[in-house]
């Protein structure tokens, strides 16, 4: 297993629409495992493949509370099938935009279909933080960041500030190249 470097904004890899996975093979399973390890280490409650520089439709999520049993989900080609009319607002963070928190309105409940790490199909309903995190991660697969919900002027200001401070958030070994 390996910890993967997390791609920080601004970066074109975070603005790309990811490609569907055609076959859930050992390579995909290894990437999902490394993504889970990277997410727990960050720490975070979700992670999408473009955040580790891969452009396939893969996400991992675990919203279990500290001290509870982990509840990891590996999702391949996740697809929203239904969203509730009730919308809730939450202040969201993002591992690719450290220290940037944005109020985002999202449907409170969703139904989605996905393949697991064995290629088996699932259709589940999610609510609360689980639904929130799934929607945030699916946004990543479509090249959408939480700052894209801000007005253009606020988003541009935030991204410009991040570009200036980006090297402060990079691991030491990456700073020579940055
Ligand atoms: O995709 C990401 O950038 C991960 C992100 C997911 C997310 C956060 C908040 C709302 C929706 C989706 C994070 O995990 S940011 C870190 C975070 O929220 C957290 C970290 C430790 C404990 C609890 C939460
Ligand atoms: Zn994010």
How would you characterize the overall build of this protein?
- With 178 residues, the chain is of the alpha+beta class.
- The protein is built from three helices and seven strands.
- A five-stranded antiparallel β-sheet has the order 1-2-3-6-7. A two-stranded antiparallel sheet has the order 4-5.
- Strand 6 and strand 7 (121-127) form a beta hairpin.
- The model has no long low-confidence stretch (mean pLDDT 95).
- Bound molecules: ligand K1U and zinc ion.
- Zinc ion binds next to helix 2.
Give a brief description.
By secondary structure, the chain is an alpha+beta fold. 27% of the residues lie in helices and 25% in strands. Residues 43-48, 92-96, 132-133, 136-137, 140 line the site of ligand K1U.
